Amino acid sequence: xxxxxxxxxxxxxxxxxxxxxxxxxxxxxxxxxxxxxxxxxxxxxxxxxxxxxxxxxxxxxxxxxxxxxxxxxxxxxxxxxxxxxxxxxxxxxxxxxxxxxxxxxxxxxxxxxxxxxxxxxxxxxxxxxxxxxxxxxxxxxxxxxxxxxxxxxxxxxxxxxxxxxxxxxxxxxxxxxxxxxxxxxxxxxxxxxxxxxxxxxxxxxxxxxxxxxxxxxxxxxxxxxxxxxxxxxxxxxxxxxxxxxxxxxxxxxxxxxxxxxxxxxxxxxxxxxxxxxxxxxxxxxxxxxxxxxxxxxxxxxxxxxxxxxx
Length: 310
Prior knowledge:
Layout: H1 22-38, H2 50-62, H3 64-73, H4 82-106, H5 113-138, H6 150-156, H7 159-184, E1 194-198, E2 210-212, E3 216-224, E4 231-240, E5 248-259, E6 264-272, E7 277-288, E8 299-308
Helix pairs in contact: 1-5, 3-4, 3-5, 4-5
């Protein structure tokens, strides 16, 4: 029987270490680069997509540029912890936005939406590229945020906690949907006609402030139909003495005007004060619809002025 040599080492299987790819070192930077390329697209989104534009815009201004810069400056694992990196990202973002604004103000393009979006995207891509190069050089010593693993996290939760998270998610989705519907869908009360008067310069100023009895005064009256349907309008001009409740007189009328939805009508309204007195009012009443149903004015404007004797 041959003697067995116990001092010979047992052969161990050689385990190959998993290959670390560029994606493993910079998956967050890859997502950041994709986000940067999408920043100019925010300007092309229609207005009704504001629930998507607002959070993306906040991230683009308050987090993304600073995150890319801190990743480039502090690429080592021992440089900063995760919480410090998030706080630093926010502070650096504000500083970078301020510097970009100062730079664009000196350039011919100026501080405009497209130059801001393009310069912001270019800045993020530049710093993200520098961060990726530095992570490759550091190798295992580079800081890479842990990749989210939602499926593994979900399976590790107890059934009762899963039910709670599911209920919370449904509640948040319901609240988000209700908020979106409330803020985006037009409310019937918002379909209101615009009724305005303009002064001599065609602006909401320089109105007549005084006039002699019988002197011709005027303003430019404007009506814009926002009722989502054609409407008929009529305007009355009244002089009202605020110091005597029964002292009022019809000074003039205009209309009726047939306006399609979104159409605007402007014309000059003239009148003359029938009596003298300080702090007299000229009231402009807008009526719409069937005259038989016009009990109260649909819109009302008031102008204060002093009436003087001739």
